[in-house]
Known about the structure:
Elements lengths: L3 H5 L1 E2 L5 H15 L8 E5 L5 E6 L8 E2 L2 E4 L2 E4 L10 H15 L4 E6 L7 H9 L9 E8 L3 E3 L1 E2 L2 E2 L3 H11 L5 E3 L16 E10 L7 E3 H12 L38 H19 L1 H10 L4 H7 L5 H9 L5
Parallel strand pairs: 3-7, 3-8, 8-13, 9-12
Antiparallel strand pairs: 1-4, 2-7, 5-6, 6-14, 10-11, 13-14
Amino acid sequence: MYSIIEMLGYMRPQGSDAQQLFCERFIEPTFGKPDEHGNYILQIGHKPKHCFTAHHDTVHRQGGMQKLVVTNDVVTVADPKVSSCLGADCTSGIYVILSMIEAGIEGTYVIHAAEEIGCKGSMEMVRDYPMWLTYTKAVISFDRYGDNSVITHQMGFRTASDAFAKSFADALNMPQLKPDTGGSYTDSNEYAEIVPECTNISVGYYSQHSTTESQDLAYLEKLVYALENADWSKLVYQRDPTIIETMNRGSRYGYSLGYDDYGVGSFAYESSMDNVGQLFEIVADNPFVVAELLDSLGMTALDLMEECKIEDPNLYNKISNTRYSM
């Protein structure tokens, strides 16, 4: 098995030489060549119900190699002036997937391209609708910070049932894993209109996308062990992917979307979704342009959190304590 420290040494924004070298060294010996969108796909078993995903790009501002420091089973970058982030998002997810494949765990494994610039790899692959999606019951991404999340909502929309989230913790015998409605946006979200249960699992990194990003190596190995010894028969599939369910009014995201007493989408939802979808496409494809626009209008990150009613202490502390340089 590859060393997670060796893997974290590569700074690999989408399209960089370092990303290509990383894929050739760590992914292609197991997966072979990628599809036309840059996604690596490998299947173990006959029509497996579960798809496990990660992504091979990072948010580093430049490609190349970086030096790391390990202290008490926690890895960080050695020089923040060289490294804009650690890149455990999503190197740790790739490490988890390679470990599961080595252990022979059945599943469809996908390591996506271009997640950090709008989930472009997974978006295009889902549009192609490969045959294996017809029998997939759950898409499980390993791309969440912390050590206790089984994501049930992304961008305020339900993508996995609470029953599935709880059964996942039971299957792994990891009671610290809990249903979490605070997911933002990762590759599993792209499958949510097709696959019943689409989630994102904590892999033990913190302060992602910043120079203070760290990875808890002890938790990562604990997760790998639990996945390799999981009782996958315990998983429960309850969500209907054809039904759109949003966060309740007054939620942490402040959405005014929801259902009426008959389970039918409200007028506000029906009338706004086309525009929301169009806005989302623009933001997903051009995140830095949108960020620069908000900055030019005088809006700070904390202002944006307040306007959107995003009540996330970890994100608040990260923004308050981090100084970004372009």
